[in-house]
Amino acid sequence: MLRRFRRLFCLAAFVTAIACAGWAVAGEIEHEPGIEYANPADQHLKLDLTRPKQIEGRVPAVVCIHGGGWAGGTREGWQWACDELARRGFVAVTVTYRLTPAYHFPDHVEDVQAAVRWVRDNAERLKVDPSRIGVVGDSAGGHLAQCLGVGADVDRLQAAGKPGGAIDPNCRVACVVNIYGPNDLTREVPKNVAGLLRNFLGDPEKDHLNYILASPYYWVTPDAAPTLIIHGTKDDVVPFEQAQVMHERLKAAGVEVELLPIEGAKHGFGGADAEKAHAAMYDWLERHLKRNTPAS
Amino acid sequence: MMPRAGLSILVVFCIATAGCAEASELIHVEHNIEYSNAGDQHLKLDLTRPLKIEGLAPAVVFIHGGAWTTGKRSHWQFACDELARRGFVAVTVQYRLVPAFKFPAQLEDVQAAVRWLRANAERFRIDPERVGAVGVSAGGHLAECLGVGADVERLAPHPANENAGPIDPSCRVQCVVSYYGPCDLTRQVSVGVSNVYLKFLGGTLEQARQKYILASPLFWLTPDAAPTLLIHGTKDDVVAIEQSEIFRDRLKAVGVDAELLPIAQAGHGFEGAGAERAAAAMYDWLERHLKAERK
Lengths: 296, 295
Hints:
The complex is a heterodimer. Chain A has 10 helices and 10 strands. Chain A has helices at 6-13, 79-87, 107-121, 123-126, 140-149, 154-158, 191-201, 208-213, 241-252, 271-289, and strands at residues 23-24, 29-38, 45-52, 55-56, 59-65, 91-95, 128-138, 175-179, 227-232, 257-262. In chain A, the strands form 2 sheets. In chain A, strands 2-3-6-5-7-8-9-10 form an 8-stranded mixed β-sheet, sandwiched between helices. By secondary structure, chain B is α/β, with parallel strands linked by helices. Helix content of chain B is 35%, strand content 20%. Chain B is built from 9 helices and 8 strands. Chain B starts with a helix and ends in a 5-residue tail after the last helix. The relative contact order of chain B is 0.12.
């Protein structure tokens, strides 16, 4: 999967010039694992933080969200990217969140929102610029990242049908990379995924509104964060169509969006595909979170 | 002929259904209240209310049409009178017009009107959580904007709005009725309408596409939108009924209560039986969505 190509990026790391609003020594990174960022339902949710050893001023931050059908996976799955991002001058965290079947929507969304809030609340200590927080995720993590990007706030999710809820500005993100995450959960998906959705959202008929509320597709407004979607054209878990409809919807709303199709790839990238995907991801984060690049 | 007993039962019934208005026939109109002074324009509204209100009454903001260029708030006085008889506090508002003022001035003004109602809730015995918006044509468009929470603060050019504050809940509305308003300004229908959009938005679609998007309630629509009734003539040659069909479909897709009442053979403007049917549906929608007391 994604981690296969981490070594390639290790090589590049030592020649990467870190030039953003803040400044960090290229390549030198340090870890602060196991930080509790929230404690909902007494679950002591933790994140692992990776950062450049030396930071001058403020640097951008990235929150990484693992996949696993909202039911499995561990935050260690994104450590390779956190290391690379820290080498490139970002503060990066990879987060644990509550899983099915013990927890259901919107708990997962609440947790990743709490993670963004934690980064923002700790911006000063972490030397992070709170206006430059990005988010990346794969599969179910891509879905959660996309939820953050469209501002699908739990307050508003819970207030569904009760207008008046407000987006909490503290869990907004400045850009998103969504790696084969589903976007419209009301669309047809393969049987095994339908089972995952059932655990996450309930019965597709009886709890249909949950399927809508949990779909970033339906929360898109002109205000959504710039988004890069990376998706295999032969994905047999999350159909490629999911990427296409989200791409179209964001585009229609005038939001900056790119779809990088990985030709012939399934759910999970290897070899040259992974290399291409990761290069595009780092590029997107650099372009949207680092100040020295002109705004597009 | 109606027996006397029947008549008095009818009167009692009227009073009972009005709920918050004790004497349903007695209404009071206050003209020319300045609700905002944006652009030094001393924007005014006319407020109509039941003479007596028990508890808190729902409120409705009425928005006139006229291509954002013309029109008068007096257009809606008939509906304000009727709603006051039914126990609502109703206002019909003036707003800044094209060409002196371009988008989003018009939206800012109707948002200010909703905020004004909430700010004066105590004085007029309004329930700030039961506020609706009704508009016709360009006013329907503005009412739809209020219903989807297209907040002007968030209308700042994308993506420079990363530090934008939260949607101000005080200009949201809890239900909307739109008479033949456009929801997607990026869909061009006729040369005439294109010229109106040009003046409203300060450029052609090609020149100012992002503004056309930001000014389109369709693109702000989320599961959090207000329940919306759309009323549209099937032969509307100014704003095609397709605009209301798209909006209804999108509202339904996100699980929001929405209905489209087509007025057969009607164009851009209703009269006679069509106008009566539209008004009856409007009153019914407002009663259904705003009348029930909160738990």
